[in-house]
Design goal:
- There is one protein chain.
- By secondary structure, the protein is mainly α.
- The protein folds into two domains: 264 residues; 86 residues, no CATH class.
- The protein starts with a helix and ends in an 8-residue tail after the last helix.
- This is LrgB-like protein.
- Pfam families: LrgB.
- Keywords: Membrane, Transmembrane, Transmembrane helix.
Amino acid sequence: MLALSQASSLVFPAPLPSPLLGAASLLSLLLLVPAVLPLVAPGAALLTAWMALFFSPSLISLPLVAPPPPSALARMLAVVVLGWASSLLLASRLASVGPAATPPAPSAPAPAPSPLLPPCAAAVLYASPFLLLPFAASLPLPFFLASNVAAFVLCNTRRIPLHPLLGTALLSQAAVFAHSLLAGCAPRASLALYASTAGAQVSSLLAPSVLALAVSVHNRRALIASSWLPTLLSVVATSLHGLFGTALACRLLRLPPRFSLPLLSRQITSPLALSAAASLGADGSLAIAAVVLTGLLGSVFSGALVGKEVAPLARGLAVGISSHGLGAAALSREDPEAFPGAAVGMALTGAVTAGLASVPAVRRALRVAVGAAAVAA
């Protein structure tokens, strides 16, 4: 899957994001040559299971992002929080049209997914990278990488009273702080070193994860075909709402364009959001911060806004559309019955939103909407 992702970046350069075009190509190949599926399915399943880990470097490195002025930051947070909630409710309403609204036949509840390791073994795994501390100053990559992965495994035992991604970020930052004490440097310098070494390595697997979504869509093609109307309505309407509704909200709140443009791609996964931000001339680090915050909101609070009385497909579509990979990853653990819809919603919304942002006329309209018409598109 990693090789396919690298090949797509060479074969499909601009204007569309290469992971998106690679995923479309892989989906086409799977539809035309089904025999390819057994070759890519194991890698896709592995990437999907660990997808939340690949988002963690963005959250761990968040203190490195230069914060906007307090007044702008408050307005940006308002746009992200209200935008996420309105996207979720809009997608939930539209996804409940037609077949998606039909409640499933009663069935035994799906068993909760097993943790990656038993709690004691996970705790030992998290402690083990600290044995590398004497060598961490000269060999930071093994230490940072081991502590990042071990923190994720420990937080997925459900013994940590935090959301797994938040717990992973905090435990990984603790390891970064320990490195700074040993190396005798500022914590910010150690965090920058983490971001350029282990963080870059872990984040690089996000693009292959986008390709893995092609396998999820292929495996649910019958579901999409039987519920094409709610899927189409919710994906297209929420993608337009995410781009133009966010731009309008930023304009109404008089948020300067340099802080507005990074928010427009808030509801799609990081590789596609970075590509959309580059197309719009937006700050990539702020765009990733908005993506991470949106995903966190979706993974923690979606269940409170979309009740269990909503059909599983509609629940999944709403979460995947509004909260991208982090929301889908949370459903894979907490609501496995709704996860297929989340995978479909995440993949199609990412494709539609990133595709729209790559169209010159749409880019110009978005820049005008946020008041950036004077800046060259």
